[in-house]
Hints:
Number of helices: 3
Shape: elongated
Order of helices and strands: HEEEEEHEEEEEHEEE
Structural class: mainly beta
Oligomer: single chain
Number of domains: 2
Largest sheet: 11 strands, antiparallel
Number of strands: 13
Distance between the termini: 37 Å
Helix content: 10-25%
Amino acid sequence: MKKYYILALMLFFLIKTYAQEINEAITKPSTIRLGVEMGYDYFWAEAKHLDRTYIRTMYPRPTTDFQNMNIAYVGVKPEFLFAKNRFGVATGIRISQYHSKFEVSRSEVVAWFGGENFVWVYDDDYNNLPLLNINQKSCFVGIPLELKCFLTKKDKLFQPYIKSSAGFNFLIHTKNDLEVWRSELEGTNIYNGEKFTNIPGIQYPTQGINIVQQQMGKPAIFNVRTSLALGLKIGRSKYPFGNIEIHIPIILNAKSVSPFVVPNAGLGFQCSLQIPLKNHIKQK
């Protein structure tokens, strides 16, 4: 009788072990994930030496004290895992907006308006605009390529990773905006920071604004943005989960992404949601 009990007990553990293996096979995390991302990069920038054909009194005394570039983006990309889900490769499509700003110091514009301020001469008759700042917003469509490595082998609720990425971006649209100084009293050099409006009799016509916007130029049609990131996966891989990461972005052809600023050091943030595909794999 004891032999039957021992045999039944052994059979029970055998069936239980087999059932666990079947369950693990059925609920094995997918090796394909579909992700939606959203991110933001901020770059400290330096001013370019602008074309002397248009810009006057920019040298030797600089008249700007603030330049930057920021990039906001959204994208969709699938990720493919390998090496027991330890490594991942992702690609897809991404839409980015590059916003560069060239701002003139208010105090210097007022103090140096007699000949050392930021003046844009827009035609052969020396008609000009004294500028407060210029902005450029450019839209790019890009193809990201990412390589991810998880720092732990097991799938955990919180799983850190490192990621190296590159984005190949193509220009699809550019918009130039500017803000000018205008005289409060005709015939004087007293200026304020009000934005230009089409007021009858104002000394800076709308035509001049349009000409300067065209003369400002556009970024190059192609750029490459790379980054090195430290991230954290939040959630189990068998279910939809999120990622947050901070990264250091670098634009390889930085001098060509804006006609008037050059982005230097930067810092970025990204969050994403990933959904596992084909999550249930039956054991053969």
